[in-house]
Each structure stands twice: as C-alpha cells, then as structure tokens.
Write a structure and sequence with these properties.
Number of strands: 7
Largest sheet: 5 strands, mixed
Mean pLDDT: 90
Shape: globular
Low-confidence stretches: none
Oligomer: single chain
Number of helices: 22
Strand content: 5-15%
Helix content: 55-70%
Distance between the termini: 84 Å
Number of domains: 3
C-alpha cells in the first residue's frame, strides 16, 4: 500500500539559495583552520611525521612508519598525498601549506558529494512531496536542489566537523572517500558510469585510508538496500537495469576492498563489547549529542516522519551508513574521529526533515542557534580583547592560568577578517528575522552560519593562543635549548606525535633506541607520575631536565645524556 508522503511543499518554498553565498560559505569554512596555523597534537602532528619520513625516503611507501613506529590507523593513501606534496615543496616554510592542499580538496569533496548525493536521493519517486489537487507543488528538480542545499548547511553546522575536518589525518581522508561513495550509490540510477567510478574510488580510498572493514560493511548493506529496497528511482526497464548495474559495481567494490586490504595487510579487527558501565554509556551518549549537533534532532525527526518509507533509498541508504558508523564507534573502541564518517548521512537525513518541520520546531532551532552561537562569538571577542588589553581582568587571568607564558601579539589582518565575519553573521541574523521565511532551508541557515562564524573567529582572533596550547613549539623549543651539544639524538618510549614535533625542532638526526648509532642525547616521554620510564637504563643515561608543556603539564619530555 502506498502511503501519503509527509512532505507538503509548495513551489514558493523551494527558494534558490544564491550560489555565491553558498560557495562563499563553503570556501571560508574550508580554508579557515588550514591556513596560518601549525600542526596540532596529536594525530595532526603525527601524520606530518609519517609524510616527512616517506618524502625523505626513510620509510616504506607501502607500510609507512616513523622511526619504526607504524601508524595506528593502518593507512597509506593519506600519507602518500602529503609526501607527494612535500616532494614539490621549495622550502620548509612552504611545506606545511602544500601538505594541506590535498586535505582541503578532501573537505571540499565531502561538501560537494554530500550535496549531490542528497540531490539524487531527493529526485526519487518516494521522496517527492504531495501533489496538490490544482498544482503548485514543488517541482522535482527545484525540490531536490533545495534539500541538497539544506544537507550542505546541516553538514557545515555539525560541531564535530570543525577541528577534525581541518586536520591532515587519515580520518579526514576517510570522510572524503565515504562522501564520494555516498554520492556514487545515490546517483547510480541517473549517471551510472560516473557514479560507478565514484563508488569504486570511494571504497578503494576508504580501504587505503585505514577503514577496509567499514568499507566492506557499507557496500554489503547497500547491496541489500538496492536489490531489495523500495520503489526504484527509475521506472520500468531503466530502473531494473540501474539496479543490476549498481549491484554489480558494489560487488566489484567489495572484491577490490578485499584484495587491497589483504595485499597491503590493512585488516585491523578491534571489535570488543562495550563495558556495562554508566560512565562509558554516558560518555558515548554525550559524544553523539555534541558531535552531531544540530543535525541529530532533525535526523531523528526525519526518521519518524518518513517511518513508512524506511525502506526507500532516501532514508535507508543514509540510515545504514549512519548506523554502521555509530555502532563501529561503540564496538571498536574508536574515538570521535570514526564519527566523522556519519556526517554526510546524518546531514542528508536532516535535510529530509525540512519539508516536514512545524513552525514551532523551526523557531526553536533558530532561537537556540541564535543564542548559542552569539554567546560563543561574544566570548571569543571578549577573551581576545582581554588578551590585548588586560581588561576584563578575569578573562585575562584565565588565559594566563591556562596558558602560562603566552604573549599575545596584535595583528591587523586577523582582526579585519574577524570583523568581516561578524558583519556577515549580523546580516544573516537580520535576514532570518525578517520577512523572508519561505525558504525550505531556512531552519539550518543560522546553525551553519553560526558554526562558520565561530570557527572563523577562533582561527583568526584565537589562533596564536590555540597554536601555543595545542601545538608543540613551546615544548620542543625548550627541549632544543637543553641539547647544547651537536650530534644525534636517541628516541625511546615516545609517541609518533612527539617524534614528529622533535624532528622539526631539534635540527638533529633522530634514531630509535634499537639502532646501532651511539648518540650522546636521549629524549623520552615522562611517565604519568613524571618519572623516567623504567625501560631506560639509568646506568647509561643520566637525567638532565624534565620539560613540560606550559599549557599541559602532563605532556612532558625527559632530556637524558650519556654518562
């Protein structure tokens, strides 16, 4: 039995979001956080270290390592991209910017693939709004374009994308290729050649970025959805042909995933049952709430309103991707970086809630976004003024307490950019509170604009402070001053992030403790109690200094010298 679609949309509601505004918002959001900052702890810095080792020819390209330490992600392709950029760098100052170019492209690809994937899902017959008795309902192409705009705005609005989406890590590469796969599956009935290539590239990229098991599960689930799902996107013989081609491409993608992962030994099985402790479940719930905010309430509403169409492509495909990602985070002991893979799906689901929202719910979202982001932006401005002038005194004291030794410098360009971003936020608020209330994507305009505004403020006004507290320069420069005798440095009991940071700061050749090189110096991470690690032979090495990060005392390094 065919049920009435919950979407009731008039043609007047599918107002076209100006392309200049949408592209400008995407450009500002994508570039902020990639330009001007140093590498942060810890995965961002560790990735730079693996890329540097590959470019210098000190590691195997098929199994990247850093002083013998393998990547915990089991990834290859993200490190290749950075290493290839390093080979083109004319000098060290330009190297970090070149490393980030492929990852800027990956973030941009995520945005584009989310838009187009949602667009083709919204073109399906079961996703269409109710047809009015005398006409006037939204036209399919206009309706699909509007929902795609809403999905892209919901993606930008998600809080979890801000920092993790601007790092040079395998997690961002996985996000980019997952989004490409999402587009390929959604667009396969309409452009099966391009969509098929996108599907295969997405699965192969996921595999080479360290997620072969997830790639395989994503593909197998989508095979079932396409083969046994609801009404095909195309009618008649064309629909059957598209279904068979899509299933064939997905099966080929599964084969490629298995072959690549097996040949390169990329399989990593980390499945474990979660502990039945309230603190663990509470932490997982809080992570989901803040990471996917504000898309998750909209996604839940979409699932409820479209519950009779749960087997349709526009609900089942993103729901499958989101469900697998959420369970993987829970049962594989993964961090919030795994949740990145659910962003394109939850943004798409959030978009399908827009045709069904009631005015009260939409107003609640607007008011919350307005208050939340306005307060956040105000805090950023107040703290910046306190760093520059010492007033108000309490924020200035808080900065001194949390970042001892930090000295704020005034710079004109970040201030100009922050002022321009603030003016744009004010203009957006004025527009949303005005008379233009017909646009279907209006409910996600303020959350997206607020997220982009606050992120831009952080990456301009607070960037020196964040570089000081989240970077390693304050730590490694102090370590370098302790090593007053030129020569090599031995490394023992250190993570990849600290090794990568020391490589750039010491200017000495680093060697692992198992090498045959006899060095005068040794550096090691301190234990949780601030002691020398027990694996270090104190009859051979004497402690010279314990160097702690000024903003993170638990992040400390011992400098040892040979007796």
């Amino acid at each position: 039995m065919q049920h009435t679609t919950p979407a009731v949309v008039a043609q007047a509601a599918v107002v076209r979001l100006p392309r200049s505004v949408l592209l400008g918002l995407c450009a500002v959001y994508a570039l902020s956080g990639f330009i001007g900052r140093g590498a942060w702890k810890s995965a961002d810095m560790a990735s730079v270290g693996f890329m540097t080792e590959l470019a210098a020819g000190r590691a195997d390209w098929w199994h990247p390592t850093l002083l013998g330490i393998a990547s915990e992600h089991g990834a290859t392709l993200p490190y290749w991209l950075g290493a290839w950029m390093l080979l083109l760098a004319p000098n060290a100052d330009f190297a970090l910017w070149l490393i980030r170019l492929p990852f800027i492209f990956l973030l941009a690809m995520t945005m584009a693939a989310t838009w187009y994937g949602t667009y083709y899902l919204a073109r399906g017959p079961e996703a269409q709004p109710v047809a009015f008795a005398f006409g006037g309902q939204a036209q399919p192409s206009d309706y699909a374009r509007t929902l795609a705009d809403g999905a892209l705005l919901a993606l930008i609005a998600c809080l979890g994308l801000a920092q993790l989406g601007h790092e040079t890590t395998p997690a961002l590469a996985q996000l980019g290729f997952l989004a490409l796969y999402f587009y390929g599956v959604c667009a396969s009935p309409y452009h099966w050649r391009i969509a098929g290539v996108a599907t295969l590239l997405g699965l192969a990229g996921l595999t080479l970025s360290g997620a072969p098991a997830l790639a395989l599960v994503y593909a197998l689930g989508c095979i079932g959805i396409v083969a046994f799902g609801g009404t095909p996107a195309l009618a008649g013989a064309a629909g059957k042909r598209a279904k068979h081609l899509t299933v064939g491409v997905l099966l080929l993608g599964c084969l490629i995933t298995v072959l690549l992962a097996t040949a390169l030994r990329l399989w990593q099985w980390k499945i474990s049952a979660p502990q039945a402790l309230w603190i663990d479940w509470n932490g997982y719930g809080q992570l989901l709430v803040w990471f996917y905010w504000p898309a998750w309430p909209l996604a839940l509403w979409a699932i409820w309103r479209w519950r009779r169409y749960i087997g349709s492509r526009h609900i089942s495909i993103p729901l499958w991707l989101l469900g697998v990602t959420s369970l993987a985070t829970l049962f594989m002991g993964s961090s919030d970086r795994t949740l990145l893979l659910g962003l394109p799906a939850i943004a798409s689901l959030a978009a399908f809630s827009l045709p069904t929202l009631q005015r009260q719910f939409s107003s609640l979202i607007d008011w919350f976004a307005l208050l939340f982001f306005s307060v956040c932006g105000l805090v950023v401005w107040v703290v910046w003024v306190a760093m520059q002038t010492g007033l108000p005194s309490q924020p200035a004291a808080n900065v001194e307490r949390l970042a001892p030794g930090f000295k704020a410098d005034f710079s004109v360009m970040p201030l100009v950019l922050a002022v321009l971003a603030t003016v744009c936020w004010a203009a957006l608020v004025h527009w949303r509170t005005g008379r233009q209330r017909n646009a279907l994507w209006k409910s996600v305009a303020l959350p997206a604009g607020g997220a982009a505004w606050c992120w831009t403020l952080l990456m301009t006004l607070w960037l020196p402070l964040l570089d000081y507290t989240q970077g390693y320069s304050a730590l490694t420069q102090t370590v370098a001053r302790q090593i007053d005798r030129p020569g090599c440095v031995e490394v023992q009991e250190m993570g990849a992030d600290h090794i990568a940071a020391l490589q750039g700061a010491l200017g000495h050749q680093l060697f692992s403790s198992g090498s045959l090189v006899r060095c005068h110096w040794l550096v090691s991470e301190a234990t949780n109690m601030g002691q020398v690690p027990p694996t270090i032979d104190t009859f051979v090495w004497s402690a010279k200094a314990l160097i702690a990060h000024p903003a993170d005392p638990a992040n400390a390094i011992w400098v040892m010298q040979r007796r």
